[in-house]
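Pipeline run #58 for the internal structure catalog. This entry was flagged by the ingest filter as a single-chain record with no existing model, so it goes straight to prediction. Upstream metadata was stripped on purpose; only the residue string is passed forward. Reviewer on rotation: M.T. Logging verbosity set to normal.
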Amino acid sequence: SLFSPFTFHCAYFLSKSLNGHQIKTIFWNGVSHLYNFGFVVLMAICDGAASNRRFIKDNSASGLGVGINPFGMWPLFLMSDPTHLVKKLRNNLSKSGKGQGCTRLLSVAGQEITWEQIKAVVKRDGERLLRFTPLQKE
């Protein structure tokens, strides 16, 4: 709720065999019913399945996860669940590099990012008295 601590998880859609259009139909039908009961949906969180990513892209004005809820014209925030995003980041970083088993080379502003760099940070952090990274050793 915008004005109280009330939140409510109201629906789960098992979407493994659905495409983005089918999810869109089911989702907006549910949002319509909730609106008719006096609720306004402000956020939807999906896992990272391809159909859910398509749903987010198709239902946000810029494709970046912010759209308009046509029932009341409220903003609607669409996102992948943070746990999935962290897992996806970890998996992509673990495959980044130039060595054996590396399938990509990630970079930011022209600077390469490799799994070896991440491991070095964790190792260095583990040698300090005050640790910052809560990662496990391999």
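catalog note: The CA atoms of residues 51 and 61 lie 18 Å apart.
catalog note: The radius of gyration is 20 Å.
status: ready for reviewer M.T.
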